[in-house]
Amino acid sequence: MSDNDLIMAQREGACLTVTINRPAKANSLTPQMLVSLRDVFLEAGSDTALRAVIITGACGRVFCAGADLNTLSIDVKGPDPWDEMAEALRAIPVLTLAAINGPCIGGGMTLALSCDIRVCVPEARFSYPVLKNNVLPGQYDVNRMHALIGPGRSAAILLGGDAVSAEDAAMWGLVDRMVTQEVLTDTCQTLCAPAIASADGHLKTLKSMLGRSSR
Fold first, then answer.
1. Among 10, 126, 125, which residue's Cα sits nearest to residue 58?
2. Does residue 73 surpass a pLDDT of 80?
3. pTM, whole model, 2 decimals?
């Protein structure tokens, strides 16, 4: 499978679905895949006809296992590809939604936390093993997690290495809704429908207001 096949972007009307397509490696991300995601998100951010972006993982088993650990030692010159990817995702001025169809680990949390809405299935679990892998999370991820679930639960995940069940994630507010795998796609499309039907300027203004309120 070529690098171009590992990130799939499918446009249907005013909605773009971005799928991480590396199921044999638990949809883990290489530096080149991060560049591909960044480019997709940058293009989405400048698409005036777009109203919603859905991010998910291929094959309905894993959302994203984060960084491919075999690539962590690769010396990447220039800006951090994780930062560039996440910033491009957060800069998309329309609705962004994470359809979390399985475990969401490490950098998978970066994708999920950068979206406006998170919907997961009961089989999902959430962890951010930064101590175990001797890496640091993005500061935005830490701030967003803290805002969503509080300092103690954030510390349990980041410092205590907790893996959080889908049920707890929904109860805590780490995700916004939990649904079965069978209705995940329909639920996400329903949540996107008002944005897709909206006027461009109104949608972007509302999202900007939400962004200001979370600072």
1. 10
2. no
3. 0.94
Would you place residue 193 in the very low, low, confident or very high pLDDT band (cuts 50, 70, 90)? Answer: very high
Question: What's the rounded Cα separation, in Å, for the pair 50 and 44?
Answer: 7
In 148-194, DSSP assigns E strands to 164-165, 177-178
Q: How many domains does the structure of the chain reveal? A: 1
Domain residues for 14? Answer: 3-213
Structure token digits, residue 12 = 């249907």
Q: What one-character DSSP code corresponds to residue 174?
A: S
pLDDT of 34 > 90? The answer is: yes
Q: How many CB atoms sit inside 10 A of residue 2's CB?
A: 5
Task: Report the C-alpha gap between 167 and 154 in whole angstroms.
Answer: 16
80 versus 75: which is more confidently predicted? Answer: 80
Domain with 127 in it: what CATH number? 3.90.226.10
Return d(Cα 126, Cα 166) in angstroms, integer. 7
Q: Of 109, 119, 131, which is closest to residue 178 (Cα–Cα)?
A: 119
Q: What is the CA radius of gyration of the chain?
A: 16
